[in-house]
Amino acid sequence: MSRDTISLIITQCLGLPPLYPHPTIPLSAHYALNIFYHAQKSAPFILCPQRSRRPVLIAFRRTLILLLLCSASDVEVNTGPACPQAPSFVDFCDRKNLGIMHVNIRSLLPKFVLLTALAHSANPDVLAVSESWLRKATKNSEISIPNYNIFRQDRTAKGGGVAVYCRDSLQSNVILSRSIPKQFELLIKKITLSRNKSLTVAACYRPPSAPSCALDTICELIAPHLASEFVLLGDLNWDMLNTPAVLQSKLDALNLTQIIKEPTRYNPKSVNKGTLIDVILTNWPYKYTSAVFNQDLSDHCLIACIRYGSAIKRPPLITVKRSLKHFCKEAFLIHLARVSWKDIDLIPSVEDAWSFFKSNFLTILDKHAPFKKCRTKNRYSPLFTPDLTAIDQHKNILWRTAIASNSPRDMQLFREVRNQYTQSVRKAKASFFREKFTKNLQKVLGHCKVHGEQEHLLPAAHCTEAR
């Protein structure tokens, strides 16, 4: 049977276009089609009755599909774009799945306000910080972000350290925390995603001067946790654009893949000279989409990834405050006057006297202004106005343009907008706290001024009773 006959059969029986303009059929497929054709009746398919031709057509279709798949050597198992587009910062903020971020902050305390603004704008589920430079004397309350739980591993000496902020709606616990002087800091925690799914997240920082044995120790510590889904974030101070052979062999042995492909630290004097030392390593890379964002916290870029899977249902943000809807000033003062406040002078202990005053006062206050739960918008940094947000987005666009074009002019334009954004943030921060301080000071002075006139606000009968 000739190739023309095969083309005729495919065209008339299967409704496919003829094979004349296409490359010739491989010899193996041509040979198999010949065997299949001669095994059937001598008459062509088009001359067979409809009933007897149908089973032959079904078998022929299946055989043809198998032969075409076998002859194609580049069949993709998971079809789709070869290189998915990296999400933008807006895409990360508007995501519906689990979002993870990492930043090398180089001293957390002085930049805590900016980190809080970043957490509230990007809304990550997990925010890892390396080079926190925290000491044991620093309390968690000084660096806590609302609606996040903080886990940290500080270095005993100066510098280094890692910290992980995890959303309080996620059930998480620390399973390993280790710090070896002059080698690394490692923090591993387990996050429960559902009843039968969990995610192990690790944060690690390795200084440039660490000995070669630090890599072996890190691999030994994380190896027992690779049975399930695992993600390692941090700064290892190895350029992953030119991965050392020793490191690559260790990653291959642990089945870990680096999903960050762009440089994360650029040379200020040369745009095209950058290193990739911030990593996101995972044993399930097909579940994640990564991105690199510019930020003003340090000279490192912000790296992030989105985990695709079932969407995480986020609970609403609930705040508790006193309701003054049915508050009556006169009734409140009358109830205060009925309390025998002169008994405080008879209590010898200061702590007991304070407890007496506090319990009586709060009991009356709870009756007239009870607590109420309210849903609030996800905006915790009022100093970040829409103008600052617009400048920040414009700065990020210029950053991507400068990196793509590799033009000194675009980089200079980015630096000008970056400096403008930094100055605007400082001015907004100073103005915000100055206004808050002025208002609070006026309230304090007003309370002090009214304190001497407080007795005139009480009804006359009850004032006499109180005296």
UniProtKB/TrEMBL annotation:
InterPro entries: Endo/exonu/phosph_ase_sf, Endo/exonuclease/phosphatase. Residues 103-300 form the Endonuclease/exonuclease/phosphatase domain. GO terms for molecular function: catalytic activity. SUPFAM superfamilies: DNase I-like. PANTHER family: ENDO_EXONUCLEASE_PHOSPHATASE DOMAIN-CONTAINING PROTEIN, REVERSE TRANSCRIPTASE DOMAIN-CONTAINING PROTEIN. This is Endonuclease/exonuclease/phosphatase domain-containing protein. It comes from Oncorhynchus mykiss (Rainbow trout). The lineage of its organism: Eukaryota, Metazoa, Chordata, Craniata, Vertebrata.
